[in-house]
Amino acid sequence: MNGLLKVKPETGNICKASGLGQKGLTQRIRIITRLFNYKKLQNFKSNFEIDSDISLAKTLDTEFYTDPSVFDESREKIFSRSWQFIRDADQASQPGSCYPFTMLENFLNEPLLLTRDAEGNLHCLSNVCTHRGTVLVGEACRAANLRCRYHGRQFRLDGSFLSMPEFKEVKNFPSPDDNLKKLPLFEWGPLLFTSLTSHLDISKYFGAMQERLAWLPINEFVFKPSFSSGYTVNAHWALYCENYLEGFHIPFVHAGLNAVIDFGNYTTETFEFSNLQLGLAKTAEDVFDLPASSPDYGKKVAAYYFFVFPNMMFNFYPWGLSINLVEPVSMNQTKVSFLTYVWKEELYNKGAGSGLDTVEMEDEEVVEAVQKGIHSRFYRHGRYSVTREQGIHHFHSLIAKHFT
Predict the structure, then answer these.
(1) What is the per-residue pLDDT across 20-43, written as a single tens digit (0 to 9) for each?
(2) Closest CA to 312 of 91, 84, 81
């Protein structure tokens, strides 16, 4: 190793000077890189603690947004241990339906498959053949079974192994490892969610939202592609989420929304892996007609803004629901999808749920300004407003928990 360190860059021939072959040198570089990144992460964790007392707490160190190794670690530490939105059940509405998709394309890049078997049961499966790793289904289709195009291995629509040619001599075959991995599947009305981790308690993520809106006929919500849209934001995914998680900026950034929302009575409630911002209206127009069974009965609710960690936003308006999915692309870029589910179309684009594209453009402008600012030599972290930034404090605390 000393020989390697003494070699001058301009002389080349590092392999010879170090006494290592190319393979050995490559392995050693990988080990050094891993140790370096591990040490960086350990140092990061040491100052990556969020005080549970918001009045004392400091915000996340900017290293979270600027360090490539931390961004890479978040794939497994945060996103692989979360629930993610698939789309709605109509993607696999008939027996034999097969709908392939990629979980968080460009980030997790996990090939998955939604199927509906002959009995009408939905399944979420790995879309990778257990023989040699081929992606099984390339496009939406109908099928009685799943057959790998590479070597003919077959699976039932519930993911269980069915058959394999030329494998009679193979011992201890088939085994459970030859089945397709089956993932948990959560259905809420037409909405479907899954997770790469099988032990996550769904109630800790969606329970508060389901309980608060138990009166809402979510089954009547219809997806409207023509009302939906997508955006590319030149900022870190967490900065985009943070902006969503506080209404503090509404009077300063969103003139149109501020004219509708009663900022003085804007509140935030936090739960284990979710939170709610309750937007009350200044007038009785364009508000929910709440039943007596609702906890908010008697209030002029213009919007329920639910956030489910780490990257899903559920905005309920009197006309229906706008789901915002935040997908990391790189440290400096994020894809945001607005998916619109309409309940009462005659109310669409009114009240707090109107002009969403304008609100988005206003949000993007400030978020991208923060993206530039976090690279400053003079900024490492800030403080929280005790009354207005509980949602961000909660979000940061969950990030810290996932990294420790």
Answers:
(1) 566 677 777 777 766 666 665 555
(2) 84
